[in-house]
Amino acid sequence: MELNLKRPICFFDIESTGVNVVNDRIVELSVLKVLPNNTTESKTWLVNPEIKIPAETTAIHGISDEKVANEPTFKVLAHDVYNMIKDSDLAGYNSNKFDIPMLAEEFLRADIEFHMENKKAVDVQNIFHRMEQRTLSAAYKFYCKKDLENAHTAEADTIATYEILKAQLDRYPEDIKNDIDFLSDFSNRQRVADFAGFIAFNDDNKEYFTFGKYKNHLVEDVLKKDGGYFGWVLNANFPLYTKKVLTAIKLRNFNK
Fold first, then answer.
1. Could you tell me which of 119, 95, 99 has the C-alpha nearest to residue 6?
2. Does 152 have pLDDT greater than 90?
């Protein structure tokens, strides 16, 4: 089944130096852009992360320091990446928890404003886990009846994710609508304000903390009663986008 699209959607996958969105960096990025007429265009970039790639990470995705030594940095590539995805919704495999937060951090480090206010995010892993409980390779085998060649390369994982979503639509026509708004809601288990999930929205659309001593407390209430907590978050090892969102909430309340 082809996707029912009102606007383009970009399937993307990131390979990185590690899984910490604050300290790690992108080493490979692949984007498969699907247009409303279901034609596609794709681009894959190798990226010099400007930090050492751990040997255990290279063992997973095969990208070494030597392989990316002469490749451009993300800051050099950022505008090309942004121009490819700026008019599109986003989709990936575990993208809500990892790829989108990582991409947002890299854009902010490159001085490019990035947000999801007018975008939908479809996480194919969450659909898979809600329906079948498996991994990407198992999902590809289960839905597409094929073995995933070159797993843990960004391009192969991106294409596989696109094919899995189409197969999911074929398999669950009664449960899953071929509509990006529905798929975005269905594949998002928690409405977050900051990509990384440190600040989320409750049923009343109010932001609350999801961690620490103020877990489940409204952000507005915490900032009013504990002014030092704002400074602690800004100086601690949190993602840049989390700090940006928290600052916006503080300024919003100050302007009130």
1. 119
2. no
